[in-house]
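Thread: Newbie trying to understand structure tokens

Hi all, I'm a second-year student working on a class project, and my supervisor (Dr. K.) asked me to get a predicted structure for one chain before our next meeting. I've only ever worked with sequences, so writing a 3D structure as a token string is new to me. If someone could post the tokens and maybe explain what I'm looking at, I'd be very grateful. Here's the chain:
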Amino acid sequence: MKYQYSLFSRLIFLLVIQPSLLYIIFFPLTIYPVYFLLSIFNFNPILQENIISVSNSQLVFISACIAPYAYYLMLALILLTKDIHPVKRVKMFFLSSLLILLANIARILFLTFIYINYSYDLFQSFHIAIWLLISTLYIALLWIVLSRVFRISSIPIYSDFKYLLDHVKLKKKGLNKH
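---
Reply by user tm_fold:
Sure, no problem. This is what the structure looks like when written as tokens:
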């Protein structure tokens, strides 16, 4: 019965933690370091709510810039993977969140430098390429690396599904006495 409680609590937690909550958490953790680093590089940024003004240009940070769905995808992968101890889940989420955050800050700084020093068109080209290709690959590779570092052998969703299916088969055959 312990397994069923674990699965149920993981699913409830995944439903409770929404991308909008992750946006609220990661917005200041993203925008303030970007502002600070642009200040260090002498771009003289001005921060107003979700806009950083730099060199007569405005960088508007919409929800997608903060990448709440990247954090949520990683959270989902972690929560939907069977046989991970809760403490290990927390460690995995904090490490993956830190790595996503650092990559996102680097991405924003890179795109800002392109926009200010080159052109809007080049900025758009890099922005779309990073968004469509590199970010997806980064999350997939991050999951693979975390799985190896934390020695995870279960497969998200599949391992739970297989366990439940096997458990139902055993019950039908009368081999399970629980």
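A couple of things are worth pointing out once you decode it. Residues 82 and 161 are 9 Å apart (CA to CA). Helices lie at 2-16, 19-40, 63-66, 68-79, 86-117, 120-149, 158-173. Feel free to ask follow-ups in this thread.
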